[in-house]
Amino acid sequence: MQKLWAWFILIAFLTVGCQGVESEESFEEDVRGQTLTLDISSGFFTLFVKDSSSDHLNLRNFQNIDSDYEVELYAISLTEDTEIYHPEFDTPQKYADLPEDLIYYGDTIGVSFEEDFTSLMQNKNSDYSDLYVFNPAYTAEEIHIQPMSLEDVKHLHTPREANVSITVLQEDFQLTNVENELRNELDSLRERREIDLSARDYDIFAHSFHSSYLRLEELDFSSLPTYLIVAKDGEMTTTSETEDVIQWLQEFSKKQQD
Fold it and tell me: Domain 153-257 class?
């Protein structure tokens, strides 16, 4: 009798386990991209899929938008029935129960819709606010979120027109002037010919720090501000010291001449 009960418990356990795995494996997404909306507690977010220059969101995507710019964006509504999967939780979550800082721009988000889905690229004008209006609207049935990986960080911060991007990550970048101080110091070095780079070779950009960066063991974000340096060839590093940024750029300029 005890053996019979043991077999019954084992079968029940395996059945439940398989059902959980099946719910993950049977997910068929309609679209995949990154969010432009960090706080989805209102039950709404805008999903970026691709644009004229990239298949992945980049924090510099919307700089210098011209009249030929095209982008694939969707206005996504969430309901009480929308199931949200994230590695931090063992069970699907409701949007109203999610922590405020759970989602970041670099996260990959797969979505299945209640409605039939048709992809659409749109032409957007040079007004940044135009990105958030007149986008195709859908209701999310199921959402799967994959936290930002090292490769996602690279995509998010890769330079567009310059050879190097320097992102100054701070708690509140609007209250400091760190990026301008670095820019001025580099201008001074270029005037004294102590660094052989033009102002077009590097792009300095300030952005708010997010806890998602702390998940990345390969890079150090332990102190703020942090300078995140990404070169077009894929090289990437972080530092909290301005002197390290200057030294890195000086070595980079030497490699460019070789």
Answer: alpha beta
